[in-house]
Design a protein that fits this description.
The complex is a heterodimer of chains A (about 110) and B (about 110). With about 110 residues, chain A is mainly beta. Helices cover about 0% and strands about 55% of the residues of chain A. Chain A is globular and about 40 Å long. Chain B has no helices and twelve strands. Classes of the chains: A mainly beta (about 110), B mainly beta (about 110).
Chain lengths: ~110, ~110
């Protein structure tokens, strides 16, 4: 049983295209996240949803739009892709509260050419 | 704001050597502290955590103690194995988000 799953695992696309990444968790958590990991392995939070409501929106270009249709899903849509968007994107989930660990998906490697 | 400073790597060790990775943090209030590990090609996994001062987290032979007076959460393992080769991230949790250190790549040679 995969706790946090993401699709696709790899995504190769051209500049200017629009793409989506999907995330699902079966842990019953009410909080979900998107993180970006750059080529130097640095991880930074992008968005966080709690009970389908956006609670964290870091300084991310508005080409990135998250959407949470229900508590188990958090998708990420990216418009007008740029070279600098190339990275690994991780979805995570947790129970609400800072003392709870976050469970991470396997990541989606996005390559923009 | 909240931040984590982590010992830079890469770190290369021989099997059975002692490993320590330094981690210090800056935060308002009392965050929870975590060590996550990322094996090649995989997502992050929780290694251990501590939620209040003087707590010690431990797992798979790794340990770290939450030191409020020195704002530190150093990771240690007494005898590493080749299978411990990975990237290790120190992180703090506050305000519903994790703030990560830069990660330390550890390679253990047989």
């Amino acid at each position: 049983d995969t706790a946090v799953s993401q699709t696709p695992k790899y995504l190769v696309t051209q500049m200017g295209n629009d793409k989506s990444i999907k995330c699902e968790q079966n842990l019953g958590h009410d909080t979900m996240y998107w993180y970006k990991q750059d080529s130097k392995k640095f991880l930074k939070i992008m968005f966080s949803y709690n009970n389908k409501e956006l609670i964290i929106n870091e300084t991310v270009p508005n080409r990135f739009s998250p959407k949470s249709p229900d508590k188990a899903h958090l998708n990420l849509h990216i418009n007008s892709l740029e070279l600098g968007d190339s990275a690994v994107y991780f979805c995570a989930s947790s129970q609400a509260g800072d003392s709870y660990e976050q469970y991470f998906g396997p990541g989606t490697r996005l390559t923009v050419t | 704001g909240n931040s984590v400073t982590q010992m830079e790597g890469p770190v290369t060790l021989s099997e059975e050597a002692f490993l320590t990775i330094n981690c210090t943090y800056t935060a308002t209030g009392y965050p929870s502290l975590f060590w996550y590990v990322q094996y090649p090609g995989e997502g992050l996994q929780l290694l251990l955590k501590a939620t209040k001062a003087d707590d010690k987290g431990s797992n798979k032979g790794f340990e770290a103690t939450y030191r409020k007076e020195t704002t530190s959460f150093h990771l240690e393992k007494g005898s590493v194995q080749v299978s411990d080769s990975a990237v290790y991230f120190c992180a703090l949790s506050a305000d519903y988000k994790l703030s990560f250190g830069a990660g330390t790549t550890v390679t253990v040679r047989a």
